């Protein structure tokens, strides 16, 4: 490849070998000729180009059978109980992922310095099908939309959802069950909150604090196949009795402190994978301490460090039971540093690296 050094007498650019870059014929060919002749013209900068996740191919939702993962956004936060803003999460995560796409494209095969693993992102094929239709004042229709789109993706490849508030995980798991061949699905939930409220006198049965309760009611899922990591703050007075009775595996932040994140996550995903066909992994960004990731609607102090969060994804990425993934509750307007969406993007990249690119 050559570099242009300036125009010739006719105004055509000249390559470093002294020959003009061909511009004859259809004017539309000029862009292709310039790109072919110019070193670096095929490198897309992190902040340039289309905002798809990891600069993946923009695809129609029924055209993803040939990729490893299909990413879809759900810009919906109509089911939150605290601060809104997660509707802007999908765009922010996509934008932040441009940096990781740039690195992998610019440097080719990489060394993950944190783990020492050799990584080749050419082995990871990503498509982005855009955002599903949402209905801000209608949670039921929004849920039906999520389920339909998740099911369509699940018939073809692994769905990856960018949220949106955590209620959206419930219709996404329902869609995975309806679209895939999985009869039983486990849930690995990385979260500050258990989301096991069956009904709220204010918010009813369908809000982000009820998503796990709704998931446990689905055919093919029960509490015994659900594992939660990072739970902290306050739950109902009978929460631990409830968990014991239902068989819910709860790993609190105290467990993380006492036993270490690697051991906790290894046990948690093994429990969710036992006697199931696949595990749905849902990561609520409020699992991370708000001192690290303040861009979320329900921040709770005492959470995971960035290192611990990345270690979660490293461990999970080494498990072959993963069937679908989401990253939820990123509300970027509460973090002017843009660090929350950057971490959220890195978490997904780390998980996909482990599943497909090592």
User: Would you give the CATH topology of the largest domain?
Assistant: Arginase, Chain A
Q: Approximately how much helix is present in the residues?
A: 25-40%
- Uncertain segments are 1-5
Q: Tell me the β content.
A: 15-25%
In the CATH hierarchy, what is the class of the largest domain?
Answer: Alpha Beta
The profile of the biggest β sheet is:
9 strands, parallel
H and E string: EEHEEHEEEHEHEHEHEHHEHEH
Any idea what the shape is?
globular
What's the total count of β strands?
13
Separation, N- and C-terminal Cα atoms: 30 Å
The domain count comes to 2
Mean pLDDT: 90
The CATH superfamily title of the largest domain: Ureohydrolase domain
Broad structural category? alpha/beta
Task: Describe, in plain words, how this protein is organized in 3D.
There is one protein chain. The chain is of the alpha/beta class. It has two domains: 4-37, no CATH class; 53-357, Ureohydrolase domain (Arginase, Chain A), CATH 3.40.800.10. The protein contains ten helices and 13 strands. The protein has a nine-stranded parallel β-sheet, sandwiched between helices. It has a two-stranded antiparallel sheet with strand order 1-2. Strands 5-6 form a two-stranded antiparallel sheet. The longest helix has 19 residues, at 89-107. The protein starts with a strand and ends with a helix.
What descriptive keywords fit this protein?
single chain, 358 residues, Arginase, Chain A, 2 domains, nine-stranded parallel sheet, two-stranded antiparallel ribbon, 10 helices, 17% strand
